[in-house]
Design a protein that fits this description.
Length: 121
C-alpha cells in the first residue's frame, strides 16, 4: 500500500478528487475513498466514483504505462481492502469487475499498437 507523505498537500488534493499522478497515488485515492467515504449499500455509486478516479488518471491519451499502472493499482488496492477492511467485500468484487471492464479497452489499444509498430517476432 503506497503511503503519500503528510508533509505536503497531495493527500488533501487526492481526497478532494484531484487526479492521481502516479499509480501509488491512484491506489491511495481509491483506498481512502473506500475506507472513509464509500457509502454503504450504494454499489453503483461506488463503482462510478472509483471509475472516475481511474479515468482521470488515464487522461485523454492513455498509453501502455498508464494501463499497466491502473491494472497494478486496482489489483493491489483490492488486495489491501481484502486484508484490512474485510467488511467491504462487495467493493473488492466491484474493483475486480472494474478491472475486467478495462480489458477490452486495453486489448484494443494493444491491437492498434501491433498494427502501428508490428507484432512481437
Amino acid at each position: 500500500m503506497p503511503y503519500i507523505s503528510a508533509k505536503d498537500d497531495r493527500r488533501e488534493k487526492l481526497r478532494a478528487g484531484e487526479p492521481a499522478l502516479t499509480a501509488g497515488e491512484l491506489n491511495y485515492q481509491i483506498f481512502y475513498y473506500v475506507k472513509h467515504q464509500a457509502p454503504p449499500l450504494i454499489a453503483e455509486r461506488q463503482y462510478y466514483v472509483i471509475k472516475a478516479f481511474v479515468d482521470q488518471f488515464l487522461g485523454e491519451k492513455p498509453n501502455y504505462q498508464k494501463y499497466n499502472d491502473i491494472t497494478g493499482a486496482l489489483i493491489r488496492c483490492q488486495r489491501e481492502i481484502e486484508r484490512r477492511i474485510p467488511a467491504k467485500h462487495e467493493i473488492e468484487c466491484m474493483i475486480l469487475e472494474l478491472l475486467n471492464s478495462y480489458d477490452d479497452e486495453i486489448a484494443k489499444y494493444e491491437d492498434f499498437k501491433i498494427l502501428e509498430n508490428g507484432d512481437v517476432e
